[in-house]
Amino acid sequence: MNTTRSDLLIHTVMEYGLFKEEMYSTPENEAYLKKVYRLLDDMQPGTRIEIDRITQPANFRKFIRSVCLYFWDNDNTIEFDSEYKFVKKL
Fold this sequence. Notes:
The protein is of the alpha+beta class. The chain contains 4 helices and 4 strands, in the order βααβααββ. The mean pLDDT is 85.
């Protein structure tokens, strides 16, 4: 079962302000957020990325929050699988 866009939207709406505040709290976090946005912008529709292959375990939560912010701030064409192992561009 995949985490649907509406599931992600509900999660993001509840946490949007907290995620945004955290990701803009330091220059390092902001640079990380921009890196994730570029990655997601460059993905072609149908592309699926294994999250563990592109993030360090210590950055997993930061990556998920960055994707959630991207989802909210952009065109909502991103979804996670149910275990948050993959991110896919629709």
